[in-house]
UniProtKB/TrEMBL annotation:
Belongs to the intradiol ring-cleavage dioxygenase family. It holds the Pfam family Dioxygenase_C. It comes from Mycolicibacterium pallens. Keywords: Dioxygenase, Oxidoreductase. Residues 10-84 form the Intradiol ring-cleavage dioxygenases domain. It comes from the Bacteria. This is Intradiol ring-cleavage dioxygenase. The keyword Oxidoreductase applies. GO terms for molecular function: dioxygenase activity.
Length: 165
């Protein structure tokens, strides 16, 4: 995917080691999903609350959720500080929720950072290889890419017809 200057996030990636998570939301038919609401949050440290819940939405060791809307091509991007593992022995991840027209409920998933630390994560170890791979973001020239395909089981489509009934 070639990024255009219009699509890049407005906030620059700073010297603080910020990363850019980006991707495309599509339907199972491969068509982009415009105007989907993407919310991300992650653990930015490790205290007792983070270890118990896996995430904390605000405070010293957690991040506030960031919300963006996909463009007409289904693309999104978010700049953030890199996530920390929420507890010892787990892998760092970014929680991602998607709300889109036609979906019955919001989808919540994880975008794991690529690396050798993934083998230690108890959730990833329990998943079949194909499902595990779908939860791991990939590095590219922009940052971390995490594409999501919405499946019919969680979404419904409204068909319209010009025929009189």
């Amino acid at each position: 995917m070639a990024a255009t200057s219009r699509w890049h996030c407005d906030r620059p990636v700073g010297a603080s080691g910020a990363i850019q998570l980006h991707g495309v939301i599509t339907g199972e038919d491969g068509r982009p999903v415009p105007d989907a609401l993407i919310e991300t949050w992650h653990s930015a440290g490790d205290d007792n609350a983070v270890a118990k819940t896996g995430l904390r939405r605000s405070g010293r060791n957690g991040t506030r959720p960031t919300c963006v809307i996909t463009d007409q091509q289904g693309r999104y991007c978010v700049n953030m500080v890199p996530p920390q593992a929420p507890e010892h022995g787990s892998a760092p991840f970014i929680a991602v929720s998607v709300e889109a027209r036609g979906c019955l409920d919001r989808l919540i998933t994880r975008a794991y950072l690529p690396g050798c630390h993934l083998a230690k994560d108890s959730l990833l170890r329990r998943l079949p290889a194909e499902q595990r791979q779908a939860l791991i973001a990939t590095r590219d020239d922009i940052g971390l890419r995490f594409d999501i395909t919405l499946r019919p089981a969680i979404c419904v489509t409204a068909e319209t017809s010009d025929e009189a009934r």
